[in-house]
């Protein structure tokens, strides 16, 4: 399908995840303009320089450092700004700190009059996607979280390793929270139309240990962080895949996070379900047939997220025309975000 006329991406927050996303987008050839925005402008300038030095190896693209206002005409605003979880810090505390970042930055990044799609990547992504939806007032279709797109890829990878089948031939989804309560849908996982167990029986392969693989999917990020400090390459590729479906108007089915409005009896919460994604965003949510125990686990996942949402004050903060974001040297910024 042809590209939309405008092919501009904005990446807000160029830490490890934002920079990896920018790199994935640059080499994809999907866009011809990309603006990087970060509270640490010098860091953003360094990333732009490093990316731009590869110009002779890729399709032409304009990459530059900008301000929050430069995001407003982008096709997609990728929001990866935030602070990492401290050792021993609760998820609620992390949400509260990153909610401050959202409240200060989003009014500058997004215009209700435009048609930009906001793609949330900052963790905890589901609660912050809900917060972004409340703070911006945008239609639910235009506020998307990266959700369990990466988790679903991890699920497929582990099944592919066990069954010795290339990962792109595995159809399997993880739904619910991007986190500890996520739900791998074994009842729908299939290879060439065969349920995984039937495929293994036909091929003479031992059936996979479902509990072991599910645990490895849930704990994958912890395992990577324990070894290298952060996850970012696969996240960047997952975000690139979502952007690809939007910009190419693909109608692809991806497990992005977004507002759930009645599916499985769940309402007023953002979490992941297989959804059709195209140039208008997350246009349709698929109520796929789950096994009873999976559906119950999905509802428990939703309740976990709701319990966090209910403890947050999501009323928008005021923001100043002369200063769209806290400056790094500000005492209040350091206190709110732990930035050093």
Number of domains: 2
What's the pLDDT, averaged over the residues?
Answer: 88
End-to-end gap: 45 Å
* Rg from Cα: 20 Å
Report the sheet with the most strands, covering strand number, pairing sense and barrel closure: 6 strands, parallel
Q: How many extended strands?
A: 16
Low-confidence stretches: 315-340
List the total number of helices: 11
The topology string of helices and strands comes to: EHEHEEHEHEHEEEEEHHHHEEEEEHH
Fraction of residues in β-strands: 15-25%
So what's the overall shape? globular
CATH topology title of the largest domain: L-2-Hydroxyisocaproate Dehydrogenase, Chain A, domain 2
- Strand order in space, largest sheet: 3-2-1-4-5-6
Structural class, by secondary structure, is alpha/beta
CATH class of the largest domain: Alpha Beta
Helix share bin: 40-55%
CATH architecture of the largest domain: Alpha-Beta Complex
CATH homologous superfamily caption of the largest domain: Lactate dehydrogenase/glycoside hydrolase, family 4, C-terminal
């Amino acid at each position: 399908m042809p590209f939309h006329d405008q092919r501009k991406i904005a990446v807000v927050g160029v830490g490890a995840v934002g920079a990896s996303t920018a790199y994935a987008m640059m080499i994809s050839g999907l866009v011809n303009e990309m603006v990087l925005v970060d509270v640490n402008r010098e860091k953003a300038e360094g990333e732009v320089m490093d990316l731009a030095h590869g110009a002779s190896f890729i399709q032409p693209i304009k990459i530059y450092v900008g301000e929050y206002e430069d995001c407003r005409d982008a096709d997609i605003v990728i929001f990866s700004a935030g602070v990492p979880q401290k050792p021993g810090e609760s998820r609620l505390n992390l949400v509260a700190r990153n909610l401050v970042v959202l409240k200060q930055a989003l009014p500058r990044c997004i215009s209700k009059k435009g048609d930009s799609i906001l793609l949330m990547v900052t963790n905890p992504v589901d609660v912050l996607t809900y917060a972004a939806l409340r703070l911006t007032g945008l239609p639910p279709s235009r506020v998307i979280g990266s959700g369990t797109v990466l988790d679903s890829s991890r699920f497929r990878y582990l099944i592919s390793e066990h069954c010795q089948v290339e990962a792109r031939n595995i159809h399997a989804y993880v739904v619910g929270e991007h986190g500890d309560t996520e739900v791998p849908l074994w009842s729908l996982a299939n290879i060439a139309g065969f349920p995984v167990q039937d495929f293994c029986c036909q091929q003479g392969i031992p059936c996979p240990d479902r509990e072991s693989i599910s645990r490895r999917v849930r704990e994958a990020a912890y395992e990577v962080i324990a070894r290298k400090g952060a996850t970012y390459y696969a996240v960047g590729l997952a975000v690139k895949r979502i952007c690809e479906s939007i910009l190419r108007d693909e109608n692809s089915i991806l497990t992005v996070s977004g507002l759930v409005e009645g599916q499985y009896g769940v309402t007023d919460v953002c979490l992941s379900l297989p959804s059709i994604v195209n140039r208008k965003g997350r246009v349709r949510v698929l109520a796929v047939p789950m096994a009873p125990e999976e559906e119950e686990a999905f509802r428990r996942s939703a309740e976990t997220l709701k319990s966090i949402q209910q403890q947050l004050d999501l009323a928008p903060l005021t923001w100043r025309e002369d200063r769209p974001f806290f400056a790094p040297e500000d005492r209040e910024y350091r206190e709110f975000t732990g930035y050093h």
